[in-house]
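Protein Record: Sequence and Backbone Structure Tokens
======================================================
Scope: a single protein chain, as residues and as a discrete description of its fold.
Tokens: labelled as protein backbone structure tokens, with as many entries as the chain has residues.
Position: the record begins directly beneath this header, with no further notes in between.
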Amino acid sequence: MRPGGSSTNLRISSGFLGLLQNIHGVEVVPVGLALSRQRSEGVHNANLLVESAPHRFRFGPVGLAVLRPGYLRPLLAGVAWMGRRSSMELRRLGNSGTLVSVLGLGTMTFGNETDETEAHRQLDVFVGAGGTFIDTADVYQRGVSEEIIGNWLARRGDNDDLVIATKARFPMSEDPKDAGAGRRHLMRAIEGSLRRLQVDHVDLYQIHAWDPDTPIEETLGTLTSIVESGKARHVGWSNVTGWQLQLIIDLCERNGWSPPVTLQPQYNLLDRIIELELVPACMRAGIGLLPWSPLGGGWLTGKYQRNTMPTGSTRLGEDPARGVEAYEPRNTERTWTILDLVNAIAERRGATMAQVALTWVRMRPTVSCVLVGARNVAQLEDNLASAEFVLTEDEYDELTRVSAPGLPPYPYGMIHKNADMRHWKKLGTAS
């Protein structure tokens, strides 16, 4: 299958698993091994997904050696009626039982760069491509993003197939009391989000960042109350450090509070610093990553040029010093070396740079869902095509090596040298 082409995933019940196992030429492979094999063979083919808790299984005609070629077509014909057609891989949301599409729709642009009409078009396109995970936050245009999504959900009607996530923490008004991760604010914030989204619960409720002015015990207890009330099914965190995340994990375990199932950090080929602490902590605890800015604020799409200040209607063209993706800090030889490699792979494979960069993030350990955002439908469609793109093992390894952030000499370098830190080896952080 050509990069960016379409594929079909068929979901069938675990009751069919025994039949599959008894068919000559069928091998049942846990998803982690299957994905590893797929990557190593550089496969671009249709897949059959078999869901059987606690595993997900993937079958394909080549590369995975799960079904021999001669058996695939009749099997697909025989089981097509058993599952709803889907065009995007599903993964578990961390260690929870909730399944989400491997690409999620980030909606920070809704109500700002993207008006409601265009936002609803994006939502339609995303769901039409098999997407199920929609992420927002109350602070996005102070509720406007949630309102836009809520209007779309109300128009759509039956939304049981979607997974809705939102966040709270940052100011919703000029009132200093209308912010933070304290009980008073969070209990009001969840009610406001539910009202704007026009739902009675969200699937994932996230704290947008650490709150130094609120005891963490108060925040965790409040999140547990929200889950127990049925207003949220799971909780997650965003924008925290390694010691903060581990403290959260430990306190939840010790007190029986609702544990985080996800972490939403910045993660892309240009910024892999979370691999020092956060990713290993997530791997150990079974927490799923929901990477934001997987394209580095547009850098990994190829829109910016070496030693040329951005101009025009782009994120950095409008504000070159904007946020963590600001132009000058990233205008380095390391950045351009990474971008040159991404571009070379894209040209060789007939893909876009965005598709290559998104695929690398998608293939990283403990990633549940990669959040893609766009100003318009054209950008979104290009990003969604990455769900069908697979890097070869050599391509994946080269991207990992070239973009490796390395380890600061102390304590990380010394620890790595003397203690054989296998998680950094697995991640390619030190290479």
In short: The mean pLDDT is 83. Residues 333-349 form the longest helix (17 residues). The chain has two domains: 9-86, 99-399. Residues 15 and 290 are 31 Å apart (CA to CA).
